Amino acid sequence: DIVTALRRRGHDVQLLTANNAINIDPSAAYLLTRNEPFVHLYDYINGVGVQKVDALVDEHISNLSNTLGDFGAYWGMFSLREALLVYHAVHCLIDKEKPQAFLILHENNFWGRIIALVAKLRGVACYAFQEGLLRKSDQDNWNKQGLSCDSSTMLFCWSEIARQQYLDAGIPDKKLLVTGPCHLDKYHGKGVTSSERPIVKIGRAHV
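Structure (tokenized):
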């Protein structure tokens, strides 16, 4: 996989996880079963940061209750607090670990988007992957393709067709690189090795 390949080339790669607060399908479960060492984003949260986050949340509780009702306010407050904690934790992680880059699954999820944003603010490179097959309905309904590389340095695309969809959605060409679906490299060879832009068909890179 990508982590193994990077380590073989001499890079120090640490796996970073951030389970959601309600513990649905926790990512750490996959790493624990593989006996793979990892660091947890929430380990970087400190007491001062939590106090600041709680103060910000307290300011908005009444507004959320008036707008969303009690149930909506609970989930709104819950999500706001979690987002602020993740935002704080990524800053703390960068302060302590001083990473040269982040490699995120994609920018279309809660954690990836915040990591990409903070990385951009702190001047750290962040590379994102394409999130599954691209559907026209997702783009038409909520601009999903257009939101896939707001803060990331570069987006790795599965195919030239996918790249064109991202271009049509407004992502600059310089941010797009066709690599093929990297998670299938072990089944379809070693991926792209040429400096030329590849043409990708059926998940396999042909140079």
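The longest strand covers residues 125-129. Residues 191-207 have pLDDT under 50 and may be disordered.
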